[in-house]
What does this fold into?
Amino acid sequence: MADEVQQLTRAFSGLGGLGVDEPTMVSALARWRKQPEKRSGFRKGFPGFFRSHGEIDRCEEEYMLHLAAEFARFKNLMVLWAMHPWERDARLAHHVLHQQHPVAIVVEVACTRSADELLGARRAYQALFHHSLEEDVAYRARDKPYCSLLVGLVSAYRYEGPRVNEEVAKAEAKALGAAVKSAAAGGGAGKKLVENEEVVRILTTRSKPHLVETFKYYKEMHGRHVEEDLSHSGEETTLLETVLCLAAPAKYFSQVMEGALRDGADHHAKEALTRVAVTRSDHDMDDIRAAYHQQFGAKLEDAIAAKAHGHYRDALLSLVGAGNSSV
Amino acid sequence: MATLKVPATVPPVADDCEQLRKAFQGWGTNEALIISILGHRDAAQRRAIRRAYAEAHGEELLRSITDEISGDFERAVILWTLDPAERDAVLANEAARKWQPANRVLVEIACTRTSAQVFAARQAYHERFKRSLEEDIAAHVTGDFRKLLVPLVSTYRYDGPEVNTRLAHSEAKLLHEKIHHKAYTDDEIIRILTTRSKPQLLATFNHYNDAFGHRINKDLKADPKDEYLKTLRAIIRCFSCPDRYFEKVARQAIAGLGTDENALTRVITTRAEVDMKLIKEAYQKRNSVPLERAIAGDTSGDYESMLLALLGQER
It folds into this structure.
């Protein structure tokens, strides 16, 4: 009995994890039919969900909200999956601007989509919200140090051909190094690195192949990866996210996934799991799985299977393209 | 509002191609024939001619043109024959490469074209120059001008009619405050001018006038020689009254000793299919002389004939 109670508790997301285990819940209905004492025992063994209140064990309001969110994970995934990618990206961006979702999501949309996908998202944004994306970003971020970087990123229409001017890439690697040095030297007094005009110019206008070359030269000239130098800029993570999304998106997304599956991940970090799975499934999910394995020494699908429940888990595994999904 | 005159019955594309080929062959060039064909075809027709010409003769029409004619006439014919998006890309590339603070071409392109047209120009720029427009501008333009011009061309403005009146009021007030403190390069001024939609900006400028008793441009004249302020005023005029903006460009190109042929060519080739009629009316009103007469007085030869053809003048 104790076993069954624990199983059902886990199904109701009482032992952590993401989503709810619908099949286990349904089988409990049949197994415990006409046995109210079993249900009573379940309630007593699940103090997070039910609190003793005189004669009855009543539901905790807070847990009901938590449960609603966990039940909704599968629904949210399916709706996000069904949406046109342009509308999806437009809505994701809108949530950042109007519901204080993490700014990194706008960086993701601006930097990991192709030039035409980003244009499509901007057109969808205008159709849905009657403002341009850049107008809303500029307005909402106007007091933030990353404002000009973010506006530049969403306004970009990058050249997508392979042609790169090696001399320019070298010169810009040098310029980035100089900017990093001057920001470090200035301490807190001067302009932050994320506001540096040359840094913003290079990151928001150059093509992705050009940036990859530039970062390669950076490593050659300065002995460190540009990401390493940027992770020292304190709380300002936007610049680091930008560089990773532009030059190493698979690595970036694998880190986001790990953050979502970690213990103690917050609400937004957990939502990222659905977002990355749905938006990257058709694109570079295989690369993300490989990057995950390389960085964290485990298979992404195993981590998901261990952490998620029910239909939500199966949906994620299907999107992540694991060899043998259970459905 | 276009001044371009296309004949009522347009000859088949193949005929036009043949005639153009004949115009290039043999000794000399039949400039009048070039003008009579290309100067009387709209963008779609010119595109069809270019395609058919390349197929029939294995050579680009524009190549034949550059081989056979030269000078201001060549530039006018080339710019005219290009697709509007390509033309804007070529003009923008020139402006970026040879940029100096008095150059307003980028402002014209960003502010007098529709959102879709600006984007088409950016796409044409990729194809032609293998780089993005914003990357070239950012690399060649410096300081405050870069801060203003890169977002100006990168924006994809909302093109619907909705206007938020409360926002127009508050942003007019904000602009007034910044201008009053001479903070002309302030991020907020740049944000408003480079991201808000055209109808929203017009509402904002109107409210400025209502609230403060005079137009916003009047407050941007602190230093008549300041090119940055001139650029701001040009942006506002391009939004509010493009016909009068272009009238002034044409007037200044013609006035005084000598002619700024590049400016004149630019105005006529970029507006002949758009609002040249309004520009002509503005010119007549301002100068008491028809634009055609002023051009005839200031230019000559085939160049003059080409410009006049685009202005709708029959030979």
Notes: DSSP finds 19 helices and two strands in chain A. The first helix of chain A runs from residue 2 to 11. The radius of gyration of chain A is 23 Å. Chain A touches chain B at residues 119, 122-123, 126, 130-135, 138-139, 142, 147-148, 151-152, 155-161, 163, 168, 197, 201, 204-207 (CB under 8 Å).
